[in-house]
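tool=predict chain=A
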Amino acid sequence: MIFSRTAALLVGLACAAQAQEAPGLGLQLHVLTPLQNLRDANGGKLGGGLSLMVNIPLDEGWAFRVNLGHDRFPRGATAGTEGATTLVDVSHLVVEGVYQLREVPGPYVFAGLGGYSWYVKESDPVLELSTNRRVAHIGASLGVGYRITAYLEVELRGMGGRVDPDFTAGWAGLAAAWRF
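tool=predict ok
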């Protein structure tokens, strides 16, 4: 229910943004490399995801961007545990500040903070154990991008945060966004 309300808010913000600078609403596809404990948990398998983004232009090259999305890191071998595997899903709502360094086409930089909701499923067939963890935390995003046209952009982005005291998670990735 909270995600449907958030999605409705994002669509409303996009409509307001499009009145100033089109296009304000977009879809972003991610390919992600796990870092830190996340890499150890799933054996370093690449993840991927999709986000709905709203871009709200401000003054002099600055914009405010909201991303609502979901990423998945597929089941992989857990480091140091024979036969154990881990699957990781994460939903996120991130608010970022974006600064366009030049007119379109051109590069930009961004940084933000957001809420991340993690679901970690660990399975160990040798010990016949299966555990599920759900946890939410604040994380930070940082990256650079290039706006190819008013409708297409690519980014190198990273994220980091602490899922719990014993599990830090982060990723580096490539994202492509289509604005409409």
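DSSP finds two helices and eight strands in the chain. Residues 59 and 99 are 10 Å apart (CA to CA).
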